[in-house]
Amino acid sequence: MPNKTIYVSDDDLALFERAQELSGANLSSAIVQALRRFINVEEARQRGFDEITIMVNDTGVPRQKRFLGSRLVRWLQPTPDKTGTEILNVYRTAGNRFALHKRSVPDWPLEGGDPDFAGDPKNWGLGSGLLLRLASIGHDWEAFRESGTYSFQVYETLDDLKAHASAELYRLMIQAMEGPESELLDI
Hints:
single chain; alpha+beta; 2 domains; five-stranded antiparallel β-sheet; 5 helices; 5 strands; 26% strand
């Protein structure tokens, strides 16, 4: 088996010692594992992908999931029962699949609003336009992570995802896939 010598600065020695403790005295496997992850992430970044962390709680227990991907579309729409808002994000993954992250948030009545009528202008959400206005300036509701439900599905193709998206959302996904990922502006 070939040997590689790694020179470690005095400042980094404690880091290597801690890694060896955590790896059960097999520092080589810890280094190889870290290098594999580093190469995987950096090669994906060079292809235009980022590490994305999402929240899911479809089993009742909140968890985070991470993957390498690029967001194609962000879309807001009323929930099927019209009592809330769905925030949908569609991603193209580094593994050439498509992921749909859906968050359903209830429309909450503000003071004087009718809780049984989603179209009441005193309700926040799609009914009042407040949620749309906040989302349009980039607010992603991380401060309200406990509210609503989150789900995440991965599809092999856009056609597989089509059955789970509105016609408008699907049109936007196709448009995002056909357009340039970035455009150099001469300004």
